[in-house]
Amino acid sequence: MALTDPSKRLEAMPPYMFAELERKIEQKQDEGVEVISLGIGDPDTPTFRYVVEAMREAVGDPSTHKYPSNRGRPEFREAVAGFYMQRFGVEIDAVDEVIPAIGAKECIYNLCFAFLDPGDVALASDPGYPVYTGGPILAGAEAHLLPLVPELDFAPDLDAIPADKLAAARLLFINYPNNPTGAVVPDGFFESVIELAREHEFLVVHDNAYSETTFDGYVAPSFLQTPGAKEVGVEVFSLSKGYNMTGWRCAAILGNAEAVKTYWRLKTNIDSGLFEAVQLAGAAALRGKHKHVEEMCSIYARRRDLVVEALGAIGVDVTTPKGTIYIWAPVPDGHTSTSFAELVLDEAGVVVSPGSMYGPSGEGFFRISLTTPDELLTEAVERLRAHLTG
Ligand SMILES: Cc1ncc(COP(=O)(O)O)c(C=O)c1O
Prior knowledge:
alpha/beta; seven-stranded mixed sheet
């Protein structure tokens, strides 16, 4: 074995499939094409000013400069609990049922190490946020994929999960509003999940990254507002997308007290908590002015309509999403996800994400993110119309 050989765990991760697309993007840029990326879901508008001001103040407070407690500052835990009551009507004990996470990604990854052993199974939405499958693999466990298809409104068919996978399941990852499909949770789905989790004794992890980015009057629920949810599950709430705070790494895990404690126990061995100034700024964000979130959503809604219309004009029919910051669209006949992404890049100099990036059931789709500034998005849409019509 060579001294730089990666661990077997890392070797077990699926290969990165999109090196070729990235090479083509670079080539286009070298040719002088101004490539417009509609790939990444990272908000283009800044963190709201009142949150930045709260951070400025928090950084000036020397009590935030020490190692944070992994349990989190009371101000943060109380603000998250207060937000959950006011926004979702969910009662959260600020002492035992919530702690901060260094972003939802960290939390989901570490939940795999807190709950999975080799031989265990994590049930994971496919397509889905990549950590739902990468986390279990790195933890030496198995990720069993649950296909999300348009015919079932992008909810997994719980009756189709094989009995042996259910027997070995310790975690289930779900996420609504959903990345990448833009779907919202179908009526009754959370209830069915709770029933299944009770029967087969696995922990439900609802990744709530997009409840605040919704449109047309749709108000996304928390998983925890479903009766019985706290007995079987936790929710990971991220401030990244709803408050334009991707760089701040600010999230929380809430729900089942024992599960929260187990996650905390793992974390005490791994990291030293979330910078307390970020916790105070996050608390201010959640206590703060909802009008900023609404304004941001109206920007995304306008962009969404622009993209849906342009896709219609080039013959791509999409369902207009009620939430998230993404459009999920079928590729035209005769294309795979990657061949279509390559065509769009070649013809229009626009980057879209191949759906297969998010799992095998994403094949046949592509994803457009709405986080590109208006002028560039308009230009991208015009290029699609000009180069791909007919
Ligand atoms: C479904 C989902 N979960 C989690 C994350 C990551 O959130 P965070 O920035 O809090 O790590 C993302 C980011 O794109 C996401 O789409």
